[in-house]
Design a protein that fits this description.
Elements (H helix, E strand, L loop, with lengths): L13 E5 L4 H12 L3 E6 L2 H13 L4 E5 L5 H15 L4 E4 L16 H27 L3 E5 L12 H21 L5 E6 L33 H14 L3 E3 L2 H12 L1 H12 L3
Parallel strand pairs: 1-2, 1-4, 2-3, 4-5, 5-6, 6-7
Bound molecules: NADP nicotinamide-adenine-dinucleotide phosphate.
Length: about 270
């Protein structure tokens, strides 16, 4: 299939959103609810999910809460099963659950950082996609991956995170080709810096949550509302890729011609401290 038909409306479309308890996932859930979608909200913290579900209901969308750890394949199956029980089908899967890090590779003491980040960002996407796919096929559905500009190029102090987002990109690009002609589209969305609490949950050198990331506080960040709008717009268009910042867009071309220049920009933007 060459190109796909955008959604006329998201009214009554059923969407699973992982990592919906806060940040970008919660905002996408609220904005999908604004458009009349029925949303299944997944993350580990039930209480936070309940509060996002209530916000979705107040905006006119139906919602169901399914506490899920996406690193647990059985839990991902339960997420899909409970969504089917509640809404009788799945149109859209938003693989958004994610975590980051802040540590130079040569200073990492506990390599479990790599396991944890890979499990959440990459394997969580694989598990949820695998369980939802039979249902997505029934409805010419859409698989969305919330990746990152670090899924396009390596950046200092985010080696495991960047690797997990490259893995996610490669996985989603591969199944897009497999699913061609089967009605299911795949969107990979790569935000730049977004103003959420992701940095306070970042893992540090010792594998524990850092609790802060002062070097990120004065960055020019996109608001979570703007990020949510762009994600929902990409969903409506069923667009294959959305790279959110101008630097990110230009960087993809620049990497072909002057990769060292892209490395220098990545060092300047992220720093290696
Ligand atoms: N913020 C940015 O600057 C930025 C930039 C580019 C890409 N992104 C990507 O956008 C996505 C959302 O990030 P965010 O900024 O909104 O982060 P956030 O505010 O920290 O939210 C992360 C979400 O993921 C969930 N989560 C974490 N581990 C999980 C697990 N094992 N199972 C299920 N859910 C889990 C969290 O809920 P629980 O803790 O309740 O499980 C939370 O809902 C991530 O994939 C991130 O990589 C963010």
């Amino acid at each position: 299939m060459l190109g796909s038909t955008p959604y006329d409306s998201l009214e009554d479309r059923v969407a699973i959103i992982t990592g919906a308890s806060r940040g970008i996932g919660a905002e996408v859930a609220r904005q999908l609810a604004d458009q009349g979608a029925r949303v299944a909200l997944a993350a580990r913290s039930r209480e936070d999910l309940e509060s996002v579900a209530e916000q979705c209901r107040q905006r006119g969308g139906e919602s169901v809460v399914v506490p899920t750890d996406v690193t647990d394949e059985t839990a991902c199956q339960a997420l899909v099963d409970e969504t089917i029980d509640a809404f009788d089908g799945i149109d859209i899967l938003v693989n958004n659950a994610g975590m980051t890090m802040h540590a130079r590779f040569d200073e990492i003491e506990d390599l479990s950082i790599f396991d944890h980040i890979m499990q959440v960002n990459y394997l969580g996407t694989v598990y949820c996609t695998h369980k939802a796919l039979p249902h997505l096929k029934e409805r010419d559905g859409l698989i969305v991956g919330i990746s990152s500009l670090t899924g396009k190029t390596g950046v200092p102090t985010r080696s495991a995170y960047s690797a997990s987002k490259h893995a996610m990109q490669g996985f989603l690009d591969s199944i897009r080709v497999e699913l061609d002609e089967q009605g299911v589209d795949v969107s990979v969305i790569s935000p730049g810096f977004v103003d959420t609490n992701i940095r306070s949950h970042a893992l540090g050198e010792d594998g524990a949550t850092r609790g802060d990331a002062p070097e990120d506080t004065d960055r020019n960040m996109m608001s979570v509302e703007e990020c949510g709008r762009r994600i929902v717009r990409t969903i409506r268009k069923r667009k294959r890729e959305e790279v959110m910042t101008l630097t990110g867009k230009l960087g993809q071309w620049a990497k072909l011609l002057a990769p060292s220049w892209v490395d220098a920009i990545s060092k300047k933007k992220i720093g290696d401290d």
